[in-house]
């Protein structure tokens, strides 16, 4: 379970939120997420594959040249996992950072909690 949780964390960053190709992103969502998944962001809750596909595609369109880079080793605990990450142009300091926390059910992400770090002043 630990290895699968780690893989889900990494693949979600790259293949869902970091993927610019809509077809590949949709295939990853189908593989990585349960059909009844829920994604909790600071602004809203997103329910199901269609809503996640729309949300992640729209987010990607706002910064198509950004990459998601892990900033910590993934951690797994029972059916949950977490990873710190940053996002920004490749090779530059991240423009924003956060944590992903997932709940895994039957080898797929059933829930994703996205915590954004406060911007420094």
Automatic annotation (TrEMBL):
Residues 15-111 form the SnoaL-like domain. SUPFAM superfamilies: NTF2-like (SSF54427). InterPro entries: NTF2-like_dom_sf, SnoaL-like. It comes from the Bacteria. This is Nuclear transport factor 2 family protein. It comes from Paraherbaspirillum soli. The lineage of its organism: Bacteria, Pseudomonadati, Pseudomonadota, Betaproteobacteria, Burkholderiales.
């Amino acid at each position: 379970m630990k290895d699968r949780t780690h893989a889900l964390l990494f693949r979600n960053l790259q293949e869902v939120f970091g993927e610019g190709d809509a077809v590949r992103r949709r295939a990853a969502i189908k593989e990585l997420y349960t059909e009844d998944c829920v994604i909790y962001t600071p602004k809203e809750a997103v329910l199901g594959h269609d809503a996640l596909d729309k949300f992640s595609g729209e987010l990607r369109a706002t910064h198509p040249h950004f990459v998601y880079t892990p900033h910590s080793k993934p951690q797994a605990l029972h059916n949950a996992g977490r990873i710190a990450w940053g996002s920004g142009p490749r090779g530059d300091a991240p423009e924003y950072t956060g944590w992903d926390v997932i709940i895994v059910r039957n080898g797929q992400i059933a829930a994703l909690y996205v915590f954004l770090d406060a911007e420094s002043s």
